[in-house]
């Protein structure tokens, strides 16, 4: 849920940043509401860290403006120093002081603020309890696991009660099991504390686990800024679709109308949905259909195709190339007659070289102009 409080906590207006001739941010605007968690997701090099560092005050914009609670904190001409912004950041590599123990690391920001000793002790104890780190006070960072170090980094960022928390790929140094655990824990914790969070990741699952809204970035600009549900079900570009798992691609020509969009491709006329705002699709113009492996359902050999077609679905034909058990399901790679590769999931093993038919519902087939 996106809380509606009127004034946004963070406003970014037409933000620009270049490194030499290279435009890392090309005029980006967004708003983050109080208590909201925004996950910034995009491929490596799209400008995520650049955006985060500008908000943190670690670098200066070339143009545009950043405001916090309506107050300008950064323009090309004016910079509020990072420590005056009320923003804390959790880094990918934890950035703990290796020579300070857990208590001292977490207390660091409070000490800087000259907080009285007893109050500081209570605050640190509270933060350590929140992150389940009681009993670790005297340990040095090298004596902790990666997961524990990351908890300390989060406790340290929380304890000064920042107005905004920035997370820069916070879980990418952890192993898979721990990543899954921690992303749920963080999501629960930040919501419980009503923290405003700006979170950067290249991992779609992490973004989905955390975000109220997703900011999909591409080449220094916003591709889509919407709820995870909306981004998932209507990716605004073929790059967004690909990022969010729609890895199956059929190329062809647009063969429909706005009311009945479809593509003419090697598999025949396949109907889909229009996702691109201000769509570039033109009748007979080059087009691409994208869909997820999960969207495809294997048809049993004796099933009634006519019935399936009635239900506004498409039928695709292909030959199985490979089928592998993934743990909970089988992942099958199949090839159309024209050699286009399609992935699908099935409950059972499917034999190599077998000809199969698959159902693809129109609502899960995304159409884009090329
Ligand atoms: P992301 O976090 O999405 O991977 P970055 O914001 O780190 O992307 O980088 C965006 C682009 O800017 C990349 O092409 C990167 O190589 C370039 N870049 C980032 N920092 C610098 C820098 N200090 N000097 C030159 N180029 C940089």
Structural write-up:
- With 370 residues, the chain is an alpha+beta fold.
- It has 2 domains: 10-237, 3-Layer(aba) Sandwich (Rossmann fold), CATH 3.40.50.300; 245-369, Beta Barrel (OB fold (Dihydrolipoamide Acetyltransferase, E2P)).
- Helix content is 24%, strand content 33%.
- It has a 6-stranded mixed β-sheet with strand order 6-7-8-3-9-10, with helices on both faces. Strands 13-12-11-15-21-14 form a 6-stranded mixed β-sheet. The chain has a 5-stranded antiparallel β-sheet with strand order 16-20-17-18-19.
- Strand 12 and strand 13 form a beta hairpin.
- Helix 2 packs across helix 3 (117-130), helix 2 (102-112) packs parallel to helix 4 (146-159) and helix 3 (117-130) crosses helix 4.
- It is globular and about 75 Å long.
- 38% of the residues are buried.
- The model has no long low-confidence stretch (mean pLDDT 92).
- Adenosine-5'-diphosphate binds next to strand 2 and helix 1.
- Adenosine-5'-diphosphate is lined by residues 19, 22, 24, 42, 44-50.
- It comes from Paenibacillus tritici.
- One of its GO terms (molecular function) is ATP binding.
* Beta-strand content: 25-35%
Overall structural domain count: 2
CATH class of the largest domain: Alpha Beta
Oligomer kind: single chain
> Taking strands numbered 1, 2, ... along the chain, how are they ordered across the largest sheet?
6-7-8-3-9-10
Keywords: ATP-binding, Cell membrane, Ion transport, Iron, Iron transport, Membrane, Nucleotide-binding, Transport
Domain ABC transporter: 10-244
GO molecular function: ATP binding
InterPro entries: AAA+_ATPase (IPR003593), ABC_SmlMolc_Importer (IPR050093), ABC_transporter-like_ATP-bd (IPR003439), ABC_transporter-like_CS (IPR017871), ABC_transpr_FbpC (IPR015853), Mo/tungstate-bd_C_term_dom (IPR008995), P-loop_NTPase (IPR027417)
